[in-house]
Amino acid sequence: NAGVTQTPKFRVLKTGQSMTLLCAQDMNHEYMYWYRQDPGMGLRLIHYSVGEGTTAKGEVPDGYNVSRLKKQNFLLGLESAAPSQTSVYFCASSYSYYEQYFGPGTRLTVT
Amino acid sequence: TQLLEQSPQFLSIQEGENLTVYCNSSSVFSSLQWYRQEPGEGPVLLVTVVTGGEVKKLKRLTFQFGDARKDSSLHITAAQPGDTGLYLCAGAKTSYDKVIFGPGTSLSVIP
Asked: What is d(CA B76, CA B59) in angstroms, rounded to the nearest whole number?
C-alpha cells in the first residue's frame, strides 16, 4: 500500500497563477484533510472532508478551494496565488478525526 | 491563541541522554496523539492516549496522559540520533471534534 501520496512534491508559482495539489489515499479512509505548515505556526487546517462529496472549512480557508469527487482523492486549489501562500502543504487521511496518516508534503513557493 | 502548548520549543542533547517534552492545555481533551516529523517528511503517528493517567511505552519512548486529561508528556530514554525530529502533540476535545496540533518541540540528538 502506498498510504497517502501527494503531487507535486515541489512547485514555484508567480503571484496570480493558479494550481491544484492532488492527494490520494489507498486506505479507504472517510476523512481527509489539507494542512499548511509554517515555521513557528505548527500545522494549520485549511479544509477537510468527512466523506466523498463533502468539504468543510478549517482554520485558514481563505484563498483555497477543495473538492472530493472520489473517496480516495482530495484536491486543493489555489485560484490566484499570493506570496503569503508560500508554505509546505500536507494532506492527511483517517478513519475518524484522530490518528491521521500524512503524505510527504508539497513545498510551494510563490514569488 | 494556541490551545495546545509544547515545551521546550527546541532541545539539543547528546546521544545517550534522557529527555522529557511536554504538551499542555487549559482544556480537557478526550484523546491526545503524539507524532514525529523528520525533516522533509510528513508527521508519523507514534501513539494515542485516551484515559487520564494512562502510560504507554514504545521501546525507549514513554507517553503519559495527565490525570485531568489536560496535559501529556513524552520521555525518551537514552536518546539516539535517529530520534531527531519535530515532536507534535495533537488533541481532540471530543471524538466528534477536529484535532488541533501544538507547535511542536524540535529535538536534535548529537552523536
From this structure: 9
CB contact under 8 A, A43 and B45: no
Which residues in chain B have their CB less than 8 angstroms from residue A105's CB?
A: 40-42
Nine-digit cell at A69?
Answer: 469527487
B1 touches chain A (CB under 8 A): no
Distance in angstroms (rounded) separating the CA atoms of residues A40 and A27: 31
What does the alpha-carbon distance between residue B43 and residue A4 come to, in Å, rounded to a whole number? 12
- pLDDT exceeds 70 at position B1: no
Model confidence pLDDT, tens digit, residues A4-59: 999 999 999 999 999 999 999 999 999 999 999 998 778 999 999 999 999 999 99
β-strands B85-92, B105-110 pairing: antiparallel
What would the pLDDT profile of B20-39 be if each residue is shown by its tens digit?
Answer: 999 999 999 999 999 999 99
A39 Cβ neighbours under 8 A, 6+ residues apart: none
pLDDT in tens, A48-98: 999 999 999 999 999 999 999 999 999 999 999 999 999 999 999 998 777
> Which amino acid belongs to residue A35?
Y
Residues B32 and B4: their CA atoms lie apart, in Å, by 10
The closest alpha carbon to A98, from B41, B65, B29, belongs to B29
